[in-house]
């Protein structure tokens, strides 16, 4: 008895198909229903097989693409004995095929050319000899026969040589083709065996990576919470600092993580960075907002070019030493919170801060940097601009209200230069900042400034605040 228990897809589940010889003889409604259900199931099976066929085809194509990607990667990364095996496979096949093609072409072409030339000459001689009249003398006919004979000899040699080369080529192909196939099989086998060894050896590295992932997953929650807390602290501080005040205050108690700063000794500002408005030196009352930096007793500003060939690039001025500069509040400007920096060459540039507190801090920072540089002696004052600024001559510098801007590329370490005469050299620096600076191009990045604007000067040493330590490393 033939029985089946296929479940119906188009009908309610749980219905058994009763198909047997006994049921067929009875021709009962149950049998007819089972036959109909079986037909439906057969249609569903056919659709399923079609879908499986499509999926298998897609899967096969994806494996082929994956293999092609692996080959492309293997050609570009450092080769190793595993990946290079597949390269050896392709090398064997490619050069074997090229050798065969070269062998066939060379042998065939040379012999064919010789044969074709000899055929043309022999055909011409044969036609000429066949056209001789009967009335021609026997001696002349004999002479023409020898002429035909001389044309027939190279034809015979070329024909035999051509056939010989064909036979030799067949023997060579009988040897080379199996040899290439055997080499392909060998390299292919080595490749798959090496691939198995490679993936089998990954298990140890996978366990180590899995452990690291588990540890990172366990720490991620706490890290995200800490990041959110620190983000809120800095956000609140920045918003509170930007809020206008009726009375300026120098209270920094709300700055997050400032507890590490020394409270027993005064703080001296020697490094600072931030935005200031700068009055143009080219005449008129044009004010532009620029990002200034004070570091190592050197001051400069930078911008990001918004147009032209330097669009999107960082441009900066040549740094000016403040060791021989004088700074004071400007009394002549209509604008508030302006101060002047007078160089040793008696040229003056005017800057404007956003608030009175900011202005006072900039003045204090410049004076402090000047005092520290002079107190530490001439050895700590970097005078030679070509040594402290990573500039190279360039014809692509741009002008910014009387100042020359240079494209920054890479930051080089600064070195302090020992000098004996400071006045003359500092004067040349003043001119490079205040007047048209020499045509110089920076090498990549704006002169780096401290991450914080406060440095505690204690016993001649500087210790940075807690802000210099990154809270998160990405």
TrEMBL record:
Source organism, top-level taxon: Eukaryota
PROSITE patterns, per the entry: PH_DOMAIN
Q: Name one GO molecular function term.
A: GTPase activator activity
Positions of region (Disordered)? 389-446
- Listed GO CC annotations: cytoplasm
Record key words, sorted: Metal-binding, Zinc
Q: SMART domains from the xrefs?
A: PH
Residue ranges under compositional bias (Polar residues)? Answer: 417-427
Q: Where is the PH domain?
A: 269-371
Q: Say yes or no: keyword Transmembrane present.
A: no
Q: Acidic residues bias located where?
A: 428-442
Annotated protein name in UniProt: PH domain-containing protein
Organism of derivation = Batrachochytrium dendrobatidis (strain JAM81 / FGSC 10211)
């Amino acid at each position: 008895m033939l029985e089946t228990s296929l479940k119906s897809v188009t009908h309610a589940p749980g219905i058994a198909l009763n198909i047997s010889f006994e049921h067929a003889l009875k021709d009962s409604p149950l049998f007819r229903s089972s036959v109909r259900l079986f037909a439906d199931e057969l249609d569903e099976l056919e659709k399923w097989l079609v879908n499986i066929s499509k999926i298998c085809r897609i899967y096969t194509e994806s494996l082929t693409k994956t293999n092609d990607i692996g080959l492309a990667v293997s050609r570009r990364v450092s080769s190793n004995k595993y990946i290079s095996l597949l390269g050896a496979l392709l090398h064997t096949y490619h050069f074997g095929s090229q050798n065969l093609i070269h062998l066939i072409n060379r042998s065939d072409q040379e012999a064919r050319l010789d044969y074709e030339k000899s055929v043309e000459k022999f055909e011409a001689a044969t036609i000429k000899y066949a056209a001789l009249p009967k009335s021609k003398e026997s001696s002349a006919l004999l002479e023409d026969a020898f002429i035909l004979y001389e044309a027939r000899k190279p034809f015979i040699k070329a024909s035999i040589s051509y056939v010989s080369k064909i036979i030799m080529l067949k023997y060579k192909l009988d040897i080379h083709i199996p040899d290439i196939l055997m080499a392909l099989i060998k390299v292919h086998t080595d490749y798959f065996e090496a691939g198995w060894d490679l993936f089998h050896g990954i298990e140890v590295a996978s366990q180590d990576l899995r452990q690291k992932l588990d540890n990172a997953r366990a720490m991620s929650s706490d890290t995200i919470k800490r990041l959110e807390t620190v983000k809120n602290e800095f956000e609140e501080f920045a918003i509170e600092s930007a809020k206008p005040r009726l009375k300026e205050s120098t209270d920094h108690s709300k700055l997050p993580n400032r507890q590490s700063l020394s409270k027993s000794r005064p703080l001296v500002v020697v490094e600072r960075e931030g935005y200031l408005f700068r009055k143009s030196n080219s005449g008129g009352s044009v004010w532009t907002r620029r990002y200034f930096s004070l570091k190592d007793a050197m001051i400069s500003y930078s911008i990001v070019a918004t147009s032209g060939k330097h669009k999107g690039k960082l441009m900066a001025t040549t740094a000016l030493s403040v060791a021989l500069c004088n700074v004071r509040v400007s009394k002549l400007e209509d604008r508030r919170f302006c101060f002047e920096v007078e160089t040793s060459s008696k040229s003056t540039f005017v800057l404007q801060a956003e608030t009175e507190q900011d202005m006072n801090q900039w003045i204090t920072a410049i004076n402090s940097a000047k005092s520290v540089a002079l107190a530490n002696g001439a050895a700590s004052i970097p005078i030679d601009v070509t040594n402290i600024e990573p500039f190279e001559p360039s014809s692509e510098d741009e002008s910014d209200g009387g100042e020359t801007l240079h494209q920054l590329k890479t930051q080089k370490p600064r070195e302090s230069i020992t000098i004996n005469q400071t006045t003359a050299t500092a004067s040349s620096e003043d001119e490079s900042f205040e007047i048209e600076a020499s045509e110089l191009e920076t090498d990549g990045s704006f002169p780096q400034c401290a991450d914080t604007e406060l440095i505690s000067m204690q016993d001649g040493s500087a210790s940075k605040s807690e802000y210099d330590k990154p809270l998160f490393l990405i």
